[in-house]
Amino acid sequence: MESQPPANVQKRELFKPTETHLQIMSSVFNMDETIVDPDFNTTHVCLSEIEAKQRAALVSDIEYTFSLALKKGDFYFGQAEISFYLESMPQSDDELFLNSNALAVSELAINEDPKLDQLYFTG
């Protein structure tokens, strides 16, 4: 179950990449196929205990493979492959998600099916 902010809290503006961000991304990625995370650099990347337990009930045999290019400067590039078995189908789209603090994703595939839509950063 997702909690809603109090009514008196203003909705936060979505992240907009700076010119520096765009220059760095365009030097490495095809920008037509790059998804920028609208919630980049916010505190939403931490799981609550409830979210962790819900996810643990849905998946097993989790395996992570990371490759990183750590160049001098404020940014790095990487590749992550996350494999798992789905033990049971989630009851809603909000129940199974991956959390990350990536500025952008240049390629995303689920079961080898490419995904190039901003909706994969929803929530």
What does this structure look like?
- This protein is α+β, with helices and mostly antiparallel strands and 123 residues long.
- The protein contains 2 helices and 6 strands.
- The protein has helices at 19-28, 49-58, and strands at 35-36, 59-69, 77-86, 104-105, 109-110, 113-114.
- The radius of gyration is 16 Å and the shape is globular.
Strand and helix layout:
Blueprint: H1 19-28, E1 35-36, H2 49-58, E2 59-69, E3 77-86, E4 104-105, E5 109-110, E6 113-114
Antiparallel strand pairs: 1-4, 2-3, 5-6
Question: Which features does this protein show?
Answer:
single chain; 123 residues; alpha+beta; two-stranded antiparallel ribbon; two-stranded antiparallel sheet; 16% helix; disordered N terminus
Shape: globular
Radius of gyration: 16 Å
What class do helices, strands and sheet pairing give? alpha+beta
Mean of the pLDDT scores?
79
Number of DSSP helical runs: 2
Q: What count of domains describes the coordinates?
A: 1
In brief:
The chain has 123 residues and is of the alpha+beta class. The protein contains 2 helices and 6 strands, in the order H-E-H-E-E-E-E-E.
